[in-house]
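Box 3.1 A note on notation
Throughout this textbook, protein chains are presented in two layers. The first layer is the amino acid sequence; the second is a C-alpha cell string describing backbone geometry. Keep the layers aligned when reading.
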Amino acid sequence: MSPPPSSPPPLPLIACDGPGEEHLFRPHASWVTTCGPCHREQQRAYWADLMARAEADPAPPRPSWRERVAAEARADQLASGYGTRATAT
C-alpha cells in the first residue's frame, strides 16, 4: 500500500502590505499580500468611501417599465424607418 499524499509545505512568512506597524503573517495563497485584519480594514474603508460617494451624488431614479418599453418602441420605429418622410422613387 502506498503512503498517503503529503500536503504542500506552508507558504513562508511575508511582511503585510497593510497600514500600521510592519508585521509578518503567513498567507493562505501566494497572491495574498495583506493579513486578515488589514484586509478587512481596507474593505471597510473602501465600502465606506463608496457609500459616501453614492449618498453625495445619488443616481437618478430608474424610469418605469412603461417608459422603458416606450423608448424601445420609438427606437425600433426609427431603426425600421417607420414614420419617416421617405419618398418613393
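Residues 36-56 form the longest helix (21 residues). The chain has a mean pLDDT of 88.
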